[in-house]
Amino acid sequence: MQSRCNASGPGTRQNDWVRSVRVRVSRSEELLAREDQLAWRIAEVAADPVPVDGDVADMIVNRVIDNAAVAAAALPRRPVASARSQALAHPPSSGGAGATVFGMPEERRVSPEWAAWANGVAVRELDFHDTFLAAEYSHPADNIPPLVAVAQHAGRGGAELVRGIATGYEIQIDLARAISLHRHKIDHVAHLGPSAAAGIGTLLGLDVPVVFQAVGQALHTTTATRQSRKGEISTWKAHAPAFAGKMAVEAVDRAMRGETSPTPIYEGEDGVIAWLLDGPEAAYDVPLPESGERKRAILDSYTKEHSAEYQAQALIDLARRLHREHPEVADPARVESILLATSHHTHHVIGSGANDPQKYDPRASRETLDHSIPYIFAVALQDGEWHHVRSYAPERASRPDTVALWQKVRTAEDPEWTRRYHSPDPAERAFGGRVVVTLTDGTVIADELAVADAHPLGARPFGRADYVAKFRTLAEDVLEPAEIERFLDVAQRLPELPPAELGGLTITARPGLLESAPAPKGLF
Questions:
Q1: Are residues 220 and 314 in the same domain?
Q2: CA distances from residue 207 to 179, 199, 200, 459 in whole angstroms, order as listed
Q3: pLDDT digits (tens, 9 = 90+) for 140-163
Q4: Contact partners, residue 460, CB within 8 Å, separation at least 6
Q5: What is the DSSP-derived secondary structure letter of residue 242?
Q6: Which of helix, strand or coil describes residue 493?
Q7: 136, 258: one domain
Q8: Of 15, 119, 397, 518, which residue is 20 to 30 A from 175 by alpha carbon distance?
Q9: Per-residue DSSP letters for 328-370?
Q10: What gap in Å lies between CA 369 and CA 427, rounded to an integer?
């Protein structure tokens, strides 16, 4: 069933009116027509040859630059080196030219699904790129590595790639508006497999039936539990979206060969909704573009100024402000307690409400500290900054005065912050919170911040110059100056790039850098 209505659920769209697709569980004997299935509706959006608006194309360029920035800074890290070494063991197949791998020279190509894997890990490793939060949370720029890999391999140009990326963002964000995964402890990459498959379908100009099968296969192979983001968080956190992108590439390949997927994948009585999500009685209204409607969802997403979970962004900025205005709050000897009143999600996922002792452990992994707002807030209070390397260093986490202050930070859910987190009004939606610092002399210092400084409604919204500056900052120690300028030139010409230049949409590490990175050995 479909209706022309205002978008339902906790998110909103750039468009005032959308097609809301009702999704519910269907018994096998109902023989739900494929045209009435969500995967088919997603495929219709992917196959709709609508132009890309100029502001959307500009934002896609920004996010391509953003991805390369955070990938550059992550090149020497062990998980990235591991994924890169796996990819380099898989040369291009006979079906195309192959795809580039971040860090390697442009002429070094690998099979596209492995390029999607290696580059996806590099992009996600520092948890430092874009975000969209609604019923579900997501990093929609995770769509970009598999799409770039397929475009390079298949000889597509920049305009086709831009159209594919617009679709990937649209589908992932629309699914995240309506269908919560984390509520049922399912990892958010279950929305990424279908969105990346749909984006590849747009990129390659595939027909609706082929994209339909690819979306179903991609969803079926990318549903997993949220344990990857619970307790002692492992290096799989960076690999999970890369795995989804790799599975999407492979699902498209199988669908192009005529192979079919479990159907109906969302609505079946033994399908995803019935057994992994809200159960047999569930129904969702998923907002999708009408036929002929431009794909603009990317404009509802936002990037990070700081290398930390998105719900920490505004609270880092708040801590920086307190550092400047009330330096006494950085001294654990003067602080009795620090309470962060915030949303349900922030409290239960990165706050003390998670009941994870690891969030207060100085020996915890970087991935765990990235999901500990007590740690992040304490360090930002003391340092007046947040740095993607210094702020996570083991010696920084174990500093005695930091540990003492850190243990005094607690979070609590405030219903008003939870309501604002899910508000359908973009002007009211907020991902921050209120801090109350009680000093040992009885003084109380309180302050709040609704959105991060870099948010579109924040004090300093990110524009093209900020994305370029972020790239230059993160790349300066890992790329040669000429390589920085070369990449920025290619990336900013993305919508007009001919196929022959699309291979330049990569970064090559400065001489000797990768040799100093660990090169773990495995099966391949």
A1: no
A2: 26, 12, 11, 44
A3: 999 999 999 999 999 999 999 999
A4: 453, 454, 466
A5: H
A6: coil
A7: yes
A8: 119
A9: GGG-GGGEEEEEEEE-HHIIIIISGGG--GGGG-TT--HHHHT
A10: 30
DSSP summary character for residue 9: S
- Amino acid, single-letter form, for residue 275: W
Distant-in-sequence, close-in-space partners of 277: CB < 8 Å, separation ≥ 6: 179, 180, 181, 184, 186
Residues making up the chain, counted from first to last: 524
CATH code, 212: 1.10.4100.10
Domain end marker among 234, 267, 300 = 267
* pLDDT tens digits, one per residue of 169-221: 999 999 999 999 999 999 999 999 999 999 999 999 999 999 999 999 999 99
The gap from C-alpha 246 to its chain's centroid, in whole angstroms, comes to 15
Structural domain range at position 390: 310-449
β-partners of residue 99 are 110
Beta-strand relationship, 433-439 and 444-449? antiparallel
Question: Residue 274: what are its φ and ψ, rounded to 5°?
Answer: -65, -35
| pTM, rounded to two decimals | 0.91
Q: Give 196's contacts (C-beta < 8 A, 6+ positions apart).
A: 142, 143, 146, 147, 168, 218, 244, 245, 248, 249
Tokens 């747009």, located at residue: 202
Residue type, 187: D
How far is residue 449's CA from residue 458's CA, in Å, rounded to a whole number?
A: 9
